[in-house]
Design brief:
Largest sheet: 6 strands, mixed
Low-confidence stretches: 1-6
Oligomer: single chain
Structural class: alpha/beta
Distance between the termini: 60 Å
Number of helices: 16
Radius of gyration: 25 Å
Helix content: 40-55%
Length: 409
């Protein structure tokens, strides 16, 4: 890969990305780009989804991992490679190593989702479960590299990794030459940096916008400080972009080439995942849905045509279940209420009749008749309802009040 001499840090050029594209021919898929009528109406101009969730291993990570491992010297390949990851990078390294005939060891947190552990093993890696959080797992992998001589494959902060991820940018320009804005999720910054290298070299007029989860947004303070800054205890459901500190190499490229970094809430992430599933028929993990979350949060902020990158689709089924519930609540599809009623025979049936008239589906009922807070003739009911959206929630609450019920929460 190429190096500039502006400072000691290596960097990545368009030639590097083009070289990576040739290397990945026949290895990584040129993934589909699908139009979204719903998002296009929302934004007021065409929106296209770049579907890296349909990539081999379920994410873009294979691209960078393959380029990095393919570039190793023969003696480095003989020593094997090691990586640390809770999911996507693990699977990318495992498959890339198998394709190249290199022994791989992947450290994963002890609590990593079982489907991701199983997939990593099936792709050919030896999996070692160590550490409760990714930082502990990372330390274990680096110690293994020092002890054995295996080459540590960083998840984002290496020129080869960045160049491999940058091939997504070349495909975006080929598939949507009229694009004006590219939205990409940002964790450590390898994907955003690589895409920006490719896009800005060929189309400097195109805006590249990075999207971070608000609870794990290390780039805004880092850009303000002019150097990578660590944040304490990053917290988000989007584990694919849950990174506490930008990489040194990726930070410089993002600082130079990415036009803006925006943040999105957990509600927006879950709503975006639900939208991808319902409207685009795409299974997308929260990190992969972050560009869609940005569009939902500020649709008027992005000039179209827009390409939103769905970077991955590896989501644990149990997490998917929780996220879908959260997303439906955020979209006004669930309503929880507490109300007081008179404690008499048939009172609960009458209440349920009111709900039936406004077409609210009851998911759960808790009926409390003995509580010091209640009057002698009072009962309290907690309801969990399935609704049709925010307007329907207002209608349901209004119907209950009109029927004489006191809604207290």
């Amino acid at each position: 890969m190429s190096y500039r001499t502006r400072d000691p840090l290596p960097t990545v050029t368009l030639d590097d990305v083009r070289g990576a594209q040739k290397m990945l021919s026949g290895v990584a898929r040129s993934t589909a780009m699908e139009g979204s009528r719903h998002l296009s109406r929302l934004v007021g101009s065409p929106v296209h989804l770049k579907c890296e969730n349909l990539q081999r291993t379920g994410s873009f990570k294979l691209r960078g991992a393959y380029v990095r491992i393919a570039g190793l010297l023969p003696e480095e390949r003989a020593a094997g490679v090691v990586a640390a990851s809770a999911g996507n990078h693990a699977q990318g390294v495992a498959l890339a190593s198998s394709l190249l005939g290199v022994r791989s060891t992947v450290f994963m947190p002890a609590g990593a989702p079982l489907p991701k552990v199983a997939a990593t093993r099936e792709y050919g890696a030896e999996v070692r479960l160590q550490g409760q959080v990714v930082d502990e797992t990372l330390a274990a992998a680096q110690e293994y590299a020092r002890e054995t001589g295996a080459v540590f494959i960083h998840p984002f902060d290496h020129p080869d990794i960045i160049a491999g991820q940058g091939t997504v940018g070349l495909e975006i320009l080929e598939q949507c030459p009229e694009v004006r804005t590219v939205l990409v999720g940002v964790g450590g910054g390898g994907l955003a940096a690589g895409i920006a290298v490719a896009v800005k070299a060929l189309r400097p007029d195109v805006r590249v916008v990075g999207v971070q989860a608000a609870g794990a947004a290390a780039y805004p303070p880092s850009l303000a400080a002019g150097h990578p800054v660590s944040i304490v205890n990053p917290a988000t459901m989007a584990d694919g972009i849950k990174v506490g500190r930008p990489g040194d190499v990726t930070f410089r490229l993002v600082e130079d080439l990415v036009d803006d970094i925006v943040t999105v809430s957990e509600d927006a992430l879950s709503s975006a995942l639900l939208l991808c599933l319902e409207r685009a028929k795409m299974v997308v993990e929260p990190a992969g849905a972050s560009p869609v979350a940005a569009l939902l949060s500020e649709p008027e902020a992005f000039e179209g045509p827009v390409v939103a990158l769905l970077s991955g689709g590896n989501v644990d089924p149990l997490l998917m279940q929780r996220i879908l519930r959260h997303g439906m609540a955020a979209a006004g599809r669930y309503l929880s209420l507490r109300l007081r009623l008179t404690d008499r025979p048939g009172a609960l049936a009458t209440l349920l009749g009111v709900l039936s008239e406004v077409d609210a589906n009851v998911l759960d009922v808790s009926h409390v008749r003995t509580d010091p807070r209640l009057g002698l003739t009072e009962a309290e009911v907690e309801l969990h309802l399935e609704t049709k959206g925010p307007a329907h929630c207002v209608e349901v609450a209004g119907a209950l009040r009109d029927a004489g019920y006191t809604v207290i929460g």
